[in-house]
Every structure is written in structure tokens, then in C-alpha cells.
Amino acid sequence: GSYALAVMFNEYPEEIYVARKDSPMILGVEDGKSYIASDVPAILKYTRNVYYIGNMEMARVRKGEITFYNLDGDEIEKELKTIDWNAEAAEKAGYEHFMMKEIHEQPKVVGDTINSVVKEDFIDLSNVGLSEEDIKEISQIYIVACGSAYHVGIAAQYVIEDLAKIPVRVELGSEFRYRNPLLDKNGLVVVISQSGETADSLAALREAKEKGVRTLGIVNVVGSSIAREADSVFYTLAGPEIAVATTKAYSTQLVATYALAIQFAKVRGEISEERYVELIEEVKTLPEKIAKILEDKERIQWFASKQVNAHDVFFVGRGIDYAICMEGSLKMKEISYIHSEAYAAGELKHGTISLIEDDILVVGVLTQPELYEKTISNMLECKSRGAYLMGLTTFGKYNIEDTADFTVYIPKTDPLFATSLAVIPLQLLGYYISVAKGLDVDKPRNLAKSVTVE
Ligand code: M6R
Question: Within 6 Å (CB) of ligand 1, which residues are found?
């Protein structure tokens, strides 16, 4: 099995022995004190000096002094690393909850992540470790992740296939690891993970490596297991994310996939120079557009206050809008404890529509112009069965008000990047309902921030 152990002996007071296999563990030292934790944010308040203990290694922890050993008991040298994240980043900074603070950090961290690879009018993936030759060779992309990171993968699938014309398959880590997947030897397995420690995602990465396929991690936590074991790493710059429900890490993962899609398209000759520059310019505008949506958060708060007694909510959309629905629905259920489902709008009539009855909230997401009318007609089908409709679309699509009872508009962007904007009102909706119900927003029941067990 996997373990991260801290053991004390009666005979050796003042000492703790630790050992790890597969489960995460980090050690910190500062001013004659030592710290043991499963990840960096937990000890940021006390120190930024961190040791990463490797798999199948042990350590003796004394006050301010840590000695490492291999399984034979031989002493091994470890480098003490300094973490860039500061302690304030792991504080609430005046917000009532970490989640709200992290929602508001999105314009900054999305901008930081974009700027880490976008140089003026071109994208430079050299820090990620992907050369033009590597990119040209990719025959197939397999995105593997869990939870919200999986939803990023679903949105990325549309963007990468549309721009770079590389076939993309998206899979849950927990499925991929046990189904003995057939992987093309020129494929690229992309593992997306905020923590870099999610057990199923890590196991999927190892499975891919064992099969000899190249791997790329999109990871937020520097030095985490996935970051260390992947062949290449694209670091998202979300900073420490404390709330269990992810917001800013999700948003930075999304823009990381956009950068990959745009660059892959360019290198493989699938888009013109003009389109390349246009896409980069559009991605650069996302932070300010996110900030604009946040300015109008009180409207969502008002709407949320009316939804506290909801029992079932349906999120419906097509294409990329379906990917957005999946994340909106997860935000709703994990922190508001309201049952919700994300449905590909065209699938409703194949069974789920029998659940629609008077006053059920149906949230229609309509950011994709060519699918707009189709989703409107699915929303009407729900309305005629008594549903109460919220419509989420772009400014200019004002005829949605003929159909929806409550509407939220997001700024215009390239439809490929709409997820980055449409997700913000849905994060706020989940947040405000949770607050209105008096729930523990940052630490919802039964959930952990890093899912290090399967
Ligand atoms: O650390 P990871 O990105 O690998 O975590 C994956 C999921 O556990 C995570 O996204 C989870 O679904 C969140 N609670 C969603 O808000």
C-alpha cells in the first residue's frame, strides 16, 4: 500500500521518525523547529524552508534538524528548498472565506500564468520542456485528471482539437489507471492536477510512463509528486489554494491548456500567423474580463439568496458549454450540498427531462454562437415543464430574456476561451448559496483538499 508515517518511540523522546511511500509528505525547518505535513500550504505560516522526502526514504526529525536515510539506513543528502509562495498568500486578507479570496485572485493568477509563457506576440514553451520537434511528433493527446481538473480537460479537448487538429481523449484518473489503456507510442499523456498529489492522477501518470509514453504535468504545487515524475511540467501560477473547492487553480489550468493548444496549432501549421497573434491577444484580455465579471457579483448574490431551498439543479449546455456546466454543477454540489447535474442539453430528452417539474432551477449556458438556438430550445422544453430558468450568455445575446427568468452576461471573447469567463458566475453562485445556507464553505463535509488516497 501507500503510506506517510510519523512514528514516536518511548525510548527516544525529542525525535520523530518519518517514512513515505507514494503518499505525500514534506518537511520544514525554521528557528530550531521542525514541521511535518502533507503539503506546503499547511506549513507556510511557519516556514518556507522545505525538504521533499522521496519515495521509500526515511528521516529522523529533531528540533530544527532533519537527517535523511534510505531503506538500508544509509544517510542521504537532501537539498533544502525555499518556497516562493509567501505566508500572506495563505491568509484570508480580509475576505470572509478563502474561497472568496481565491475567486478574486483569478485575474492576477490567470495573468501570471499567461505571462509565464506568452512573450509579447509569441508563446515560448521552452520552460515547459516541449521543443518544436516534440510538438510535431504528437499523434494523440490523452488528458487524465480528476474532479475539476478533469473538467478543464473536457474544455481543453474542444480547444486543442479545434486549433491544433490533434485528436484528444479525456479520462478520469481512476478509470485510466485500471483499464490497461492502449496508448500510441507518439502520444502525449497530459496529467492535470492542482496539488500534484492526487493518487489516481499520479497512478495514471506512472501507468503512462510504464508504457513508454511521454508525459506532461500541468501542476500548481512545485516539487509535488506529479511535478517530479512527469517528463515535462507546465506550472500554473495560482499560488497556494486553501479552499477545498478549486477556483483559481482551475482557471490557471484552463489558460495553460489554451497556451498549449495555440502553440501546438502554430508549430504544426494549422493556423495562420495572423490567427496566432489574434488568439494570443485574446487570451491576454481574459484577466481584465474576469475582473469585470467580478464587479457585478452582487447580482449573483441576490439570485443565490433566492435559491437556498433548491433541492435539484440542472446545468445544461452543448459543446464547450457542457464542459462549463460540469464545473458549475460540481461547485454547486460540493459546497452548497444541493443535488445538481450537468447535462449535455441534447441528452435531456433521452431520460433526464422526466425529472423536470415545477420550480426546478435549470441553468442554461450559451456561450457558443452556433449552438445558441439549439440550447434555447432545450431550455424551452424545460420551461414548458415548469422549470425556472437562468441563462448565462455573452453580452449582445439579449433575446435570451425572452426565454430565461434570470440572465447573466459575460464579456465577449473567442468562443474557444469562453469557459474562463462563464465559470466565474457559477463559482459565485455556488459560493453565495453555501454562505446563505450557513455552511462551511472552505471545508465542505466529507472532502479533502488533496485526495491522496484512491
Ligand atoms: O489536486 P487536483 O487538481 O488533482 O485535485 C483534483 C480534484 O480532487 C479536485 O479538483 C476536486 O474535484 C475539487 N474539490 C473541486 O473543487
Answer: 146-149, 193-195, 198, 201, 244-246, 330, 334, 447, 450-451
